[in-house]
Amino acid sequence: MPEHEELIIGLDVGTTKICAVVGEITGSAIDIVGIGSHPSIGLRKGVVVNIESTVDSIKKAIEEAELMAGCEIRSVHTGIAGGHIKGFNSHGIIGVKGNEVTENDIARVIEAARAVAIPMDREVIHCLPQSYCVDDEEGITNPLGMEGVRLEAKVHIVTAAVASAHNIIKCCNLSGLDVEDVVLQSLASSEAVLTPEERELGVALIDCGGGTTDLAIFSGRNIRHTSVLALGGNNLTNDLAIGLRTPISEAEKIKKKYGTCDLKSIAANETLEIPSVGGKKPRSFPRKIICEMLQPRVEEIYSLVYQEIYEARMENRITAGIVITGGSTLLDGAIDAAESVFNLPIRLGVPQGVSGLSDVVNNPMYATAVGLVLYGRRHRSKHKFRIRDKNIFQKVMSTMKKWFSDII
Is 60 left (phi over 0), alpha (psi -120 to 50) or beta? Predict the structure, then answer.
């Protein structure tokens, strides 16, 4: 591959799978030239619980993507999720120097809005502008060059647990990768599946993954609210494993092949052979029992998201309806279940705005990884995150002391 071609790699470190997508910038478009995926073992509910297993899964996904794209991957944009993610709105005010708003003024007012007290164990991963106000003129999207003496900014701040964010970066570093940026997964998915018209009118994006369900609400083209629910497709699998008394691996296969939330689509006499645990003989179950286990759990997850929307007082902003995406939305009847809970127009979100292997990534399960590539093109970061050895200073000092003692 020629050296002048610029590649952007999105690495979706999920609870059920690690997915790497390689995007090549060709003019104003992005061609998907490589995809790598491997089952995720070291995460639970979006949080790293086993570094060694996570590193192994990342390496295998990266190797597969490198082989397909014919390139060497050294840096990635990675996503972050989990129940530790918290989002809130903030407000900043500054005086304008020279009576004309400059880029420096915009940077200062965003920094002023970002200057809020957060616990020591948390860090800011996003500070997203919502709107600006110059003097008494509100609702400004870009105040650059405007005349005024006072500049205000409304922003949405997303924070994460320091340990969880650093563990994801550490896993990437141990896999031989630099992390260009850490992006909230729902924000990344929105880059791939939402249209400008939906962002303008007001839309809620629900990203249903294996370990978490992420919510992001947009209105006036800007983000208004974010939330992460620590429930996902793995809960459905666990329900089947317990209810049918079958191994989790078998429950996952049953969910993917026979799982549905639509009882009407099941024949009355349809039965399935379910493997047992402990070497016992397989048993026969009516397929409708699987639906009776899955449907209440799916509706419960959507009901909790519905409750979050109303508690945030965002229900009137969702004019364009709701877009659902993520691997768990592939369950048969998921859209109907969502419509019954929200009573709003529901659309299945698949990645768009890319070419190349677009037919391969045309699946909700690739929404975050493709979104990370699109996010990386729009926000080209010049810094890289690496976890340094915290004891490096002490090691240097001890070495220098040893040198001086040898000289003396």
Answer: alpha
Classify residue 289 by burial, with Cβ atoms within 10 Å: 0-12, 13-18, 19+.
middle
171 within some domain:
no
Distances (CA, A) of 259 to 218, 254, 291: 31, 6, 7
In-domain check, residue 23: no
- What gap in Å lies between CA 57 and CA 12, rounded to an integer? 11
Whether 26 is covered by a domain: the verdict is no
pLDDT digits (tens, 9 = 90+) for 134-168: 998 998 999 999 999 999 999 999 999 999 999 99
pLDDT at 373 over 60: yes
The pTM (predicted TM-score) of the whole model is 0.89
DSSP-derived pairing of the beta strands 355-356 and 346-348: unpaired
Query: By the 8 A CB rule, do 130 and 224 touch?
Result: yes
Number of domains in the chain: 1
91 occurs within a structural domain: yes
Is pLDDT of 384 > 90?
no
CATH number, domain with residue 106: 3.30.1490.110
pLDDT digits (tens, 9 = 90+) for 168-206: 999 999 999 999 999 999 999 999 999 999 999 999 999
Reduce the DSSP state of residue 324 to 3 states and report it: strand
| Gap between the Cα atoms of 85 and 125, Å rounded | 10
